[in-house]
Predict the structure.
Amino acid sequence: MSPLITTEDIAFDAEHIWHPYSRAHCLTSQSMALFPVVGAQGVYLHINDGRRVIDGMSSWWCMVHGYNHPQMNAALKQQVDQFSHVMFGGLTHKPAIDLARKLLAMTPMHSVFFADSGSVSVEVAIKMAMQFWIARNQPEKNKIVTIKGGYYGDTTGCMSVCDPDNGMHHWFTGIVPEHFFVPRPQCRFNDQFAEQHMEHLRQMLEHNGHQLAGVIVEPVVQGAGGMYFYSPQFLVRLRQLCNDYDVLLIHDEIATGFGRTGKLFACEHAGVVPDIMCVGKALTGGYLTLAATLCSREVSRTVSEHSPFMHGPTFMANPLACAAGNASLEILARGDWQQQLPMIESALREGLMPCTEMAAVADVRVLGAIGVVEMRQPVDMATIQPLFVDAGVWVRPFGRLVYVMPPYIISQQELAALCRGICSVLHRLYG
Ligand SMILES: Cc1ncc(COP(=O)(O)O)c(C=O)c1O
């Protein structure tokens, strides 16, 4: 356990430290409560006041093997005793080479660019698509098209393809680059797919293909943009349309990758291969920040024959992060997640479905290790968050979405407790 956090610490935090999507200089009583964590083990977060809660969020979807995993810990300790960081310009190292080998063995891609976060890997993907067309002597192909309701990260390039209505466009109009949007696919994951579902996209590609570098989508599951599950058939047709109109296909698997939807990668639901693929989050089992932009041989060869690829962050392929990545992928390769995922899916379905009986609930849906209770109205975070903690669960809703993405190591009993916690709080507030 780390040292206990004092009330002075909390006051300092409130005055001086920004948290995600928050205000600084705020007494916590005026804003959201902050829950100080002093330890974490397995699926549990230990809070300052002695309570422990089941982490339903996997710390924003990345701690897939749980906290304090012995193999992850050992891998990092071993690497720290060798070297923690070296620049990647002009130097290379075994952790990066091993991790690239593993990534390319588990995906149909050819080259790896290590980035320091999911957002950066999306920036890199967009840049890569643009450099691809510069190399092909078609620099006018520099726009991106995407489907509404997406979330790709918070940096400027990412914001430009995030949902135009609920994303941050209105804050930064005229600053973020302007790209193209079509409505999100109307066919849900299990719906019958019809060709009409492609019509917006087909028209977009037909009219604008000459200025499009690529199409970016989160395959099958739109995450932070709405926890929306759509038909894999859409991805199949999207792949064909990208070929027909000579546009690169970028899959953002940062949230969906490494088993979250029940397949190792979400694109496997559709059996399609993108030209560029972003991975992050669970890549390091959540231990350290690392992401990667993978691409086909055609993309890396075309770009590289023309010019260097213009990106190279200070912490590129950080050896500690790569060591965590290697350990995380070794744990995944053992395959326990493949037994766990169906159990998690059915336990979430069983545990969350009773919520459909509440008038305040619009929909309950589950795919792989993702369970979503969609409310009719946005929840009041300041009210609901402490109630979840009182119920022994860490769940952090946004907007109308109360959702969970637990670590893959969670047991059936812990899943039942997680779902009971959610249902009881929703009943208390809306039942
Ligand atoms: C699909 C997707 N892409 C990109 C990102 C951005 O990743 P990061 O927060 O590591 O920058 C996220 C984060 O939630 C995501 O869900």
